[in-house]
Amino acid sequence: MNPEHLFKLLSDPTRLRCALLLHRELSLCVCELTEALELSQPKISRHLAMLREGGLVQDERRGQWVHYRLHPSLPGWVVEVLDSARRSDWGELTVNADGRRLAAMTIRPSIERCGA
């Protein structure tokens, strides 16, 4: 991955929010991202597909659920960029608000329920 490619992937606020929340939470299901970002499932899925095709995230099917995480072989500089973005004023406000909505979910897919 090169910087131009990464910044194109993260240029959309929805993709950036997904990446930052995945960076914070390590692994999330599409339904969790939908709830946290308050966006429709098709929109979240479309953006996650772009992040996956771009090599930033990896998906894993667990029963009926698809979980996403940052790709484990990302170069260190990519993780540093995400760390810096998350620590920015915008990142703190946005990721914390998304995280509060995520934490308020009453039913979240667990590993046991996901068939893993």
UniProtKB/TrEMBL annotation:
Cited PROSITE patterns: HTH_ARSR_2 (PS50987)
Keyword Amino-acid biosynthesis belongs to the record: no
GO BP of this protein: response to arsenic-containing substance
DNA-binding keyword on record: yes
Any one Pfam family match given in the protein's UniProt record, by short name: HTH_5
MF terms (GO), sorted A to Z: DNA binding; DNA-binding transcription factor activity
Keywords of the record: Arsenical resistance, DNA-binding, Transcription, Transcription regulation
Span of domain HTH arsR-type: 1-89
Protein name: Metalloregulator ArsR/SmtB family transcription factor
Organism: Azoarcus taiwanensis
